[in-house]
Amino acid sequence: MTVKEKPTTVESRWRHPCGCVLEVMGGLECIVLKISGRHYTGYVGVREGHPLYKYNSDRRLDELLNVHGGVTYDGVMHGEDQDIWWIGFDCGHSGDGEGNVIIDKLGKYVEYKWISKRPLSYVIAETTSLAKQIHDYAIEKWTYLK
After folding, report:
1. Angle at the Cα of 52 (from 81 to 8), degrees rounded to 5?
2. Which of 30, 40, 78, 114, by CA, is between 20 and 30 Å from 16?
3. Average pLDDT of 5-26?
4. Phi–psi pair at 105, nearest 5 degrees
5. Which stretches of 3-146 are assigned E, i.e. beta strand?
6. Cα gap 77→85, rounded to integer Å
7. What dihedral angle (degrees, nearest 10) is formed by the CA atoms of 21, 43, 97, 7?
8. How far is CA 5 from CA 126, 132, 136, in A?
């Protein structure tokens, strides 16, 4: 799987100012974004016909898929193809970064700066793993139904 920084017009649907694109894997679309310049998130998109498309069950996605911090998002993504159902995770949990309170010379609070400890390579690996699990789940489900 290769990574492409700042997609060109061929992949115009991937125009995210702070994201990078993972090539399609097994018919699944994958994306990694950096949120507010602080931490990365990874998503895998499924289309209608996939057993996890608009997944609605008593069984949580966390019970089906093993990804960093658990599945923290499933749904359509603003600004993207509304026929894609995204399943994702984030690296903005406690323990994923280090924070520092910045105080000025007078002791007044200025800002809180949070720096992620999870590099892009880690998030790409987790997104790839999530895509493989989603792909395998579909094969297992479809085989079972035949």
Report:
1. 30
2. 114
3. 44
4. -60, -25
5. 3-5, 19-25, 28-35, 39-47, 73-75, 84-90, 97-103, 109-116
6. 8
7. 20
8. 18, 22, 28
